[in-house]
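Quick check before the chapter quiz. The format below is the same one you will see on the exam, so make sure you can read both the input and the output lines.
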Amino acid sequence: MTIKTSAARPGMYVHAVEGGWMASPFWRKQLVLADARDVTKLVEAGIGEIVIDTDRGVGPLAAHPAPGRAEAPDATSAPGPAEPPRRARRRPLSELDRAREVVEQSRAAMLRLFADARMGHAVDHRALAPLVDSVAASVARDRRALLTVTRLRSKDEYTWLHSVAVGALLIGFARHLGLPEAEVSDLGLAGLLHDIGKMAVPSAVLEKAGTLDPAELAVVRHHPEKGHALLLGGDVPAVVRDVCLHHHERVDGRGYPHGLSGDQLSLAARMSAVCDVYDAVTSQRPYKRPWLPGEALARMQSWHGHLDGELLAAFIDHIGIHPPGALVRLRSNRLAVVVGAAADDPTAPPARAFFDIPSQSRLPLVEVFTDAPGDPILGGERGAYWFGARWPAIRAAVIAADDEAAWPAVEA
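Here is the expected output.
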């Protein structure tokens, strides 16, 4: 049944929206409207009509005439005074609309900055201050909106939109970690400028669809130093230069350009490495398809020695996307293992519950829907905290849906 969005109400099952699911303010194609806030999001997104499934949710309210309403006069009645014409009401901007405006604002600023860098001119970081403020405000209102818009990039827009996305990720991540707002702003600027050195790399190399040869790879790997040189002098914050120079370092010392490791790397450098990698692998590139967010995070967790493990775990909690194999706490106060990735809503992956927290007891394995009408994920948990050295065996058994194998390990 197709209805006007203005007639939507909580409890309706939305099967489709006008303009397709990419126009929806939600990350999933279908959902139950949980409360009035969900209805408001649809209206503010400018969606005129929705398709509802009345077998899976409530239907529209029946229309009734208002009590005491007079019947319409017949054609012989004298006409009354004409009503003044009503001004068309402009719908309020949704957060996706605002995010699109921020991206458009960033286009001119970033392309001008990159053009100056190609000419070898000094970087005027102060010119980016309004953009940093706009990105920070967008992330504060809705941490996903700006990233959703930057995902809709073409390959020739990758470099500058990647910088905007990393800036947004760093701002949100820094706030999640409780860093002072002044540091948050500097990290946002660092995200915008972290790849400025790529302006010294020929476009043919940056956009090459095939594997880079050793000489081309060497050229690309010099971009942190090239960028750092552009940021020397003036009053560019030290953290911005640090992130530009060290976002490709690894905690095991096998990164570049200096092979720093562990505590030699600042918190900002380790944070930027996580954000840079995550946006890169979940974006369309000339030489690879994007990974699904859950798939990307699972692979990033498997790269031992590449990223700071504790920071990566905090980043996963921040963005609310838990990869396959992750241990999560559900709203029902059960522990579950994520057993797949969801393309339409990365924050609601399929999971398998196996442990009751209040009673501290095992449960028969049960499949769980983690979207809003089901049993949403509250956050990630550490398997070693709950089950010690037995956790790898328990996780493997839960993933394999082997009820018999899992529980002797828990109770041993």
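If your answer matched, good. The chain is about 40% helix and 10% strand.
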